[in-house]
Amino acid sequence: EAQVTQNPRYLITVTGKKLTVTCSQNMNHEYMSWYRQDPGLGLRQIYYSMNVEVTDKGDVPEGYKVSRKEKRNFPLILESPSPNQTSLYFCASGPSIAGGPDTQYFGPGTRLTVL
Amino acid sequence: AQKVTQAQTEISVVEKEDVTLDCVYETRDTTYYLFWYKQPPSGELVFLIRRNSFDEQNEISGRYSWNFQKSTSSFNFTITASQVVDSAVYFCALSEAEYGGSQGNLIFGKGTKLSVKP
User: Fold this and answer.
1) Candidate from B44, B102, B109 with C-beta closest to A58
2) Which of A43, A48, A55, B1 sits a CA distance of 20 to 30 A from A90?
């Protein structure tokens, strides 16, 4: 089944404890991205990757890191999480056309709470 | 600047009613893509449709239909004969295809929460 998977789906952690949210897709998509969803603010892009070893900042990159060593994986790293990073996180992937992705397909989401 | 406006925050209908969700967008690009996504209570984001700026043909898929009008910068979504399973938050989104800025960044509207009552 073609899908984007994220782990963990739910995570409660404490301020300052490094964490990684994994994202994997089995559709051979070049483009991958991370979004966060917050009440009243909607969905905003954190980072994106046009292809392996190519990553760039989205609208709200502060406090996050990403890497793209393999085509299928795009982990989101929070080196020192803070309570304002409590959010619902979505990973997405899509086939690339000139200038960007075609359609982005989303993973199931990761609900993160930072105490 | 790019922007997507979904003026209807919440809509409540009774099953079998038709309902239209409005979406108005702003962009300076001549090449762009418009999307609708569904977020059911379970929380995932489900892709419904993608339209590019050069294709103004309306689209129908079962009970769903979309009306794209460049003249009014609108991309409205109609559900015919609504069902309880249609209850969800629906997001309209815009992606600009021309270079500059974050490529592929989906600019989402704030969403419309649709409640379909039996």
Assistant:
1) B102
2) B1
Tens digit of pLDDT for each residue in B11-40?
999 999 999 999 999 998 888 889 999 999
Tell me which residue in A45, A57, A106 faces B45 most closely, judged by beta carbons: A106
Contact A50, A68 (CB under 8 A): no
Question: Which value, to the nearest 10 degrees, does the dihedral of the CA atoms of residues A90, A96, A101, A105 take?
Answer: -40
Distance from CA of A106 to the nearest CA of B (A): 6
In 3D space, the residue among B1, B93, B97 whose CA is nearest the CA of residue A31 turns out to be B97
Q: What is the pLDDT of residues A7-56, one digit of tens each?
A: 999 999 999 999 999 999 999 999 999 999 999 899 999 999 988 998 99
Q: How many CB atoms lie within 10 A of CB A40?
A: 5
Nearest residue to A38 via CA among A84, A88, A76, A77: A88
The pLDDT tens digits of the residues spanning A63-100 come to: 999 999 999 999 999 999 999 999 999 999 998 766 56
Q: Give residues 16 to 55 of B whose Cβ lies within 8 Å of A.
A: 31, 35, 37, 43-47, 50
Does the structure show a pLDDT above 60 at B102?
no
State the Cα–Cα distance between residues A77 and A87, nearest whole angstrom: 14
Cα distance between residue B5 and residue A97, in whole Å: 26
